[in-house]
Amino acid sequence: MIVDHFEEVLKKTSLLLPLPTATATASATHVAPIPTVMPDTPIEQFVGDAGSRTLWVVFVLMLLASAGFTALSWRIPVSKRLYHVITTVITLTAALSYFAMATGHGVSVHKIYVRHQHDHVPDTTEVIHRQVFWARYVDWSITTPLLILDLGLLAGMNGAHITMAIIADLIMVLTGLFAAYGSEGTPQKWGWYTIACIAYIFVIWHLALNGGSAASAKGQKLRSFFVAIGGYTLLLWTAYPIVWGFADGSRKVGVDGEIIAYAVLDVLAKGVFGAWLLFTHRSMAETDVEVGGFWANGLNREGSLRLDEDGA
């Protein structure tokens, strides 16, 4: 009885209260939809088929270059193989790096938060997952110092200048790696990038100024070759930070485009460089760097303890 009475009261009350109509809703002020603060699905920037195929192709090219440079070294004495050994290690390291990237073992995913500001609605945050190929930076930290060593030996630079150029180069590579993992919207990322560019200027300064001066002292023919191959190398190296700025830096270029751009530069800066250096070295006596001692002859018996002669 009580329940029936309560239901009857509710029905009468609902008849007295006006209900909202569709006309009233339509006449209300239109409000723009408020975007979500955090999207449900992040944007993924991963390697595609073109990038994957490029990694495998460059791996094979670097492997073939290493085999070719090794075969060239068999035709000359061990004391004159220094360029061949350095250049082979460069392409072999690159081959291992590209194998690691092609198999997915030299890559990690960097989570990037991008904040978008709006005038009349709350700010929104975009989440981007982008692959960073850290194996590439490991490659560069080994191969670029060896490339500098090749150029330094070719020019006849002293050990102090070669060492300082290599240190500046390592700073450039490592700060580039830090920048790739830098936080978005903070000075940190582009601060590391700026440090890398400054370090690169020191590399140019040592190779161009000190290297050019040392090469001039070895004759005009050698100087001309050093200027040509050194200028070629520095021109290619200048393209690397430009690619980085468009790829990992601002993400204007996708992962596949980044891979293809770096692949072309690596083949030119390592494979073509090595072939140019070794074939010219074979026909230009001024480029000879002959190393004796332990490098060519191994450990000799001088200074070793001979018990039979000491009467022990």
Question: Would you kindly provide a written description of the structure presented here, covering whatever features stand out?
Answer:
By secondary structure, this protein is mainly alpha-helical. It has a single domain, classed as Rhopdopsin 7-helix transmembrane proteins, CATH 1.20.1070.10. It is 67% helix and 7% strand. The chain contains 11 helices and 3 strands, in the order ααβααββααααααα. The chain has helices spanning 2-16, 22-27, 49-73, 82-102, 134-155, 159-180, 187-216, 220-249, 255-283, 293-297, 307-310; strands at residues 43-45, 108-116, 124-132. The protein has a 3-stranded mixed sheet, with no helix packed on it. Strand 2 (108-116) and strand 3 form a beta hairpin. Helix 3 (49-73) runs antiparallel to helix 4 and helix 7 (187-216) runs antiparallel to helix 8.
